[in-house]
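Hey Z.,

So I finally got round to the adenosine monophosphate thing we talked about over coffee. Here's the setup:
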Amino acid sequence: MPTLFTRIINGEIPGDIVYQNDHVVAFRDIAPQAPVHIVLVTREETPGLDALPASGDHQHLLDAVAKVAAVVGLTSYRVVINTGEDAGQTVRHLHAHILGGRDLGPVVGS
Ligand code: AMP
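And the result:
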């Protein structure tokens, strides 16, 4: 059963794709937590940081972050990778959230 994100990548579910290459695809989050909120996902269905294969598309995830940020006009942004249920990971398909467009405040201690 393909993940929700694979279905977006394959065009079965509509997605506002802003960037893609051979390894990753980036699209706007459907429930944005900031003025700009992008989901950057691996093409491979790697479940998360807690289940990485020895090699694969995840090795290209960080490389794409600044490119995606530039495409959507962000010069300052936060990157979040939720891992596991208690951390709020709802889709078990490795992805990074790229958030920006406002003062995000501190990550910890607010
Ligand atoms: P996470 O909770 O870290 O697993 O992130 C999953 C993200 O996917 C959430 O921020 C959701 O708002 C987002 N999401 C769920 N469905 C869609 C969709 N159809 N298109 C874009 N983003 C989605």
